[in-house]
Design a protein that fits this description.
Blueprint: E1 15-18, E2 26-35, E3 38-48, H1 52-63, E4 72-74, E5 77-83, E6 93-102, E7 105-114, E8 117-118, H2 128-220, H3 227-302
Antiparallel strand pairs: 1-2, 2-3, 3-7, 4-5, 5-6, 6-7, 7-8
């Protein structure tokens, strides 16, 4: 079958335009196209922002809702025999259509065969039956296109809302993370101050211990040659020196801790600064996204 291979002729530029918004009007065009039934008059409507697969699914459901006939698809052409669409005609209708993606829009091309004759857009509009069928086709396609356009914009809105929710969530994470960093900085400052206090206290202990050591050394010189007393004094002196070394190690460790606290705070402050930049970027994105939400809602409200 030949499906939409060539547009053979374009008749008088009859177009029914239903304004959706300044950017994306719904227009039903009328052209001669080549399909499986040859060169026939077709009604073509473009659906902005839609996806062909979604449109095909909706179109298939719509044209078979009042019939037991099956929808057939071959070579990208969708057909149904003896369907009933009262808005177009009280008689059974055969519909031959094709749906394809064209950039950011979906094109729906449809032929309507009524009483063994393809309905032509060249007819007598003063004929009540003709006018009723003609307007029925136009409004049938228009209403379908509007419905699909609304679905597409609603999906766009959902995606924008989802992205906005993600931005807000990321912002809250940064806020909490910054609060955690600030809390850690205060804790480090407190720990550092405590360490400095301990160092001062241990310094006093060290001096006192050194005094005990010096005193012990002086007393040992008066012991004389009493080996037992000498051994006892040496043992005591060794214990005092061990205690002093322990104090010195504690002081060294506390000083190292202070350096770690200070280093940590430098890194934490750098992280806070980076978070601040990221928060600013996210706030700008949130503002832009909210503006986009307003635009999409306005677009959605203008679809008619």
């Amino acid at each position: 079958m030949k499906i939409l291979s060539v547009i053979l002729a374009v008749l008088t530029g009859i177009a029914i335009s239903f304004q959706i918004s300044a950017q994306a009007p719904i227009v039903v065009n009328e052209k001669i196209v080549t399909m499986s039934k040859g060169d026939r008059p077709a009604f073509i409507v473009e659906i902005p922002e839609a996806i062909s697969g979604n449109v095909k699914k909706s179109w298939t459901k719509l044209i078979r809702q009042n019939t037991k006939s099956k929808v057939l698809e071959e070579n990208n052409e969708i057909t149904i025999q003896n369907t009933q669409i009262d808005v177009i005609s009280k008689n059974p209708i055969n519909i031959f259509s094709a749906i394809y993606q064209a950039d950011s829009t979906v094109k729906l091309v449809s032929l309507f065969e009524i009483d063994s004759s393809f309905f032509s857009f060249v007819g007598n509009l003063e004929d009540m039956n003709y006018e009723r069928t003609y307007e029925g086709i136009i409004h049938f396609l228009h209403d379908f296109a509007v419905g699909e356009y609304i679905k597409a914009v609603e999906q766009e809105q959902k995606e924008i809302d989802k992205e906005l929710k993600t931005f807000n969530s990321d912002l809250q994470k940064l806020v909490k993370q910054t609060e955690s960093f600030q809390k850690k900085i205060k804790q480090n400052e407190s720990d550092s101050l405590n360490a400095e206090t301990q160092i001062i206290s241990l310094g006093v202990d060290k001096e006192r211990k050194q005094g005990e050591i010096d005193s012990k050394k002086e007393s040992m010189s008066s012991i004389g040659g009493d080996k037992e007393l000498q051994d006892e004094a040496k043992k005591h002196l060794k214990s005092l020196e061990k205690q002093r070394k322990k104090i010195e190690k504690e002081i060294v460790k506390l000083k190292e801790n202070i350096v770690e606290y200070q280093t940590s705070n430098v890194e934490l402050k750098r992280n806070i600064e980076e978070n601040s930049k990221q928060k600013e970027e996210l706030l700008n994105k949130i503002i832009e996204q909210k503006e986009t939400v307003i635009m999409v809602l306005e677009k959605l409200n203008n679809i008619k």
